[in-house]
Design brief:
single chain; about 130 residues; alpha/beta
Amino acid sequence: MHLKIGIESQVCLLNSIALISNAHANAVLVSGSHGGLSAAEFVVAVSEKPRCVFFNDAGGGKDDAGSVALGILQNNGVPCACYSHMSARIGEAEDGLENGIITGVNLLAKALGIQINMAVKEAVELIVI
């Protein structure tokens, strides 16, 4: 699903980050996927990077496996934030946008003004408006 906000800004909802492509260059992506290693690898693999990516934290997991994308994408120049699995359903990007509450941010996302406990919708509005 693609939502246009403003003239040049684009928000894309991807239930699965596996659907990312170069067509999402400079878009703000809200994904229903966990923020684990495999999810981060999909973002790293595209040559044209998104402006920012939001993932579900999937409850953390062993060694915070559900949010390791934060560091991986930081190292690849992509702002990234994770939202709580208790605030939005895993695998449902629209629920993440509408109800997600941020639980983790990388330094690039923090520089955009995204903060822990912020609503995903509020964070997206910071970036696209």
